[in-house]
Amino acid sequence: SHRSSVTEEQLDPFSLVESELYILASRLRSMVVAEVPKLASAAEYFFKMGVEGKRFRPTVLLLMATALNVPIPGPDSDELVDAISTELRNRQQRIAEITEMIHVASLLHDDVLDDADTRRGIGSLNFVMGNKLAVLAGDFLLSRACVALASLKNTEVVSLLATVVEHLVTGETMQMTTTSEQRCSMEYYLQKTYYKTASLISNSCKAIALLAGQTAEVSMLAYEYGKNLGLAYQLIDDVLDFTGTSTSLGKGSLSDIRHGIVTAPILYAMEEFPQLRAVVDRGFDNPADVDLALDYL
Ligand code: GRG
């Protein structure tokens, strides 16, 4: 409409960083070129054009960079200020790339652990090339991410993202090995979800702030923002697992419950209908129990 001065395009966060996401895509492809062709093609499987996923994390990180990069006022020439801000932006783009590589590495291993056959709307790497190559490709991506991380020469940032990898492993392990009490606890769910999903987003947001030269206080706010956004992202993902279709999800729906994974929608339903507890405790091995649980949602 003519009344509004803000166009839809300006409201779309992806459009603000579109050109940078394009650079990110090509850099990711070049970062995973390996000596052994089979490993290279396995590693680039999810960096191919058209099957790149939503790029949620890089988008958030680049927008965070835009919000936090304020030019330092001083007597320096415009040229020098420009050079410094370009260099800073480049380093933050590296964080976005490293974050996406860690994310994809975790997806590759996750699909092996879950024996998933689809991912991002196409066959999962384990389905196409087998479990062994999918594990190795994940390790390779992680290794390339580490080298890129080290090249930033910022020990605090290295330590943040290295800890994230431990958190991913911790969250996945917490999900795999639960007692009945833990499976039915919202506190346990939120802790697991922090490790599995929010930690990567929150710690990489903090890294963007640290590189921008922001104070510890502002960096902590960036961390808190990423943590809440990450938790919200996983909550929506968990709801979509119940409401989405294979086409909208790029994978089968109801996969959590079929794997016996209890997520927020079930936990909330259980608060209202305590009789669901017995169903949850049976572990959803029986498809009739899946239907029974769906009735309460
Ligand atoms: C090797 C780093 C590494 C970890 C191993 C398997 C494992 C430990 C961790 C798995 C963690 C995991 C799969 C968390 C789920 C996070 C999540 C919300 C995935 C979906 O992300 P989207 O929707 O996917 O952003 P796209 O495809 O759009 O990128």
TrEMBL record:
Annotated localization: Mitochondrion
Record GO biological process: isoprenoid biosynthetic process; ubiquinone biosynthetic process
Gene that specifies this protein: GGPS9-1
Protein name, per record: Geranylgeranyl diphosphate synthase
Source organism of the structure: Camellia sinensis (Tea plant)
A GO cellular component annotation in the UniProt record: mitochondrion
MF-aspect GO terms: metal ion binding; prenyltransferase activity
Included stretch of the parent chain: 79 to 375 of 429
The keyword Magnesium is assigned to this record: yes
Cofactor list: Mg(2+)
Keyword Chloroplast part of the UniProt annotation: no
Keywords, alphabetical: Isoprene biosynthesis, Magnesium, Metal-binding, Mitochondrion, Transferase
Similarity comment text for this entry: Belongs to the FPP/GGPP synthase family.
